[in-house]
Amino acid sequence: MPNESIRLIGDMSLEIDDGRDSLELRLRKRSHAHVSLRALVPTYTFLDGAKFQVHLGGKCIYLNLDLIAKDPRQIFALFHEMGHAINVHRRGLLYELAVRIGGGKWGGLYGRKLLLAEERHAWAVGLHIARQLRDKGFDLFPLFQNKDRLSRWLRWNGLRSYEKSFAQFVAEREGSRVFGIQARTPKKSVRKKKYS
Asked: Rounded distance, CA 6 to CA 148, Å?
């Protein structure tokens, strides 16, 4: 029997067993079919935390159970952190390059580009995890009404802060107060319509 269960969608729930040193997480259906999330990242332990994050050195993945209970779509944030854990060797290489080229802990322009690339990659791996689970009969994509809503949610909840930070860094470096991605229309191509 699980210590706690969070309903995600339809007949699917996230079961949480609070062990001595970590949490055991399973997706379960009423049909008693289940899949362990630990099997996807066997060398990592799951711990309840204030936010979603991965501690690569300690091999821990922290998740906010209250947030998942309030908004089941946040299970994708857990998959994102699992994506970081799965690609730990990639992150180590990126970090080493950032320190060598950027001159500090993700401090330089190149380091920030690598960090943004790593975040995007971890989201891609997280979506791959969700697809693997869907192929096993645990489809969580209906938490979003369509691909466009998933894409908007991912950008807003997962990438926006990194993209904004990167754009602000570039703008400050170039001495501009305006930052962000802006659509630009050359003045020549803008024509005023005359109405008679």
From this structure: 26
Q: What is the 3-state secondary structure (H, E, C) of the chain?
A: CCCEEEEEECCEEEEEEECCCCEEEEEEECCCCEEECHHHCCCCEEEECCCCEEECCCCEEEECHHHHHHCHHHHHHHHHHHHHHHCHHHHHHHHHHHHHHHCCCCCCHHHHHHHHHHHHHHHHHHHHHHHHHHHCCCCCHHHCCCHHHHHHHHHHHHHHHHHHHHHHHHHHHCCCCCCCCCCCCCHHHCCCCCCC
Overall domain count for the chain: 1
At residue 63, φ and ψ (nearest 5 deg) are: -135, 150
183 within domain boundaries: no
In a domain, 44, yes or no: yes
Give the residue numbers spanning the domain of 152. 4-173
Q: Tell me if 182 is assigned to some domain.
A: no
pLDDT digits (tens, 9 = 90+) for 39-96: 999 889 999 999 998 887 778 999 999 999 999 999 999 999 999 888 766 666 655 5
CB 124 within 8 A of CB 18: no
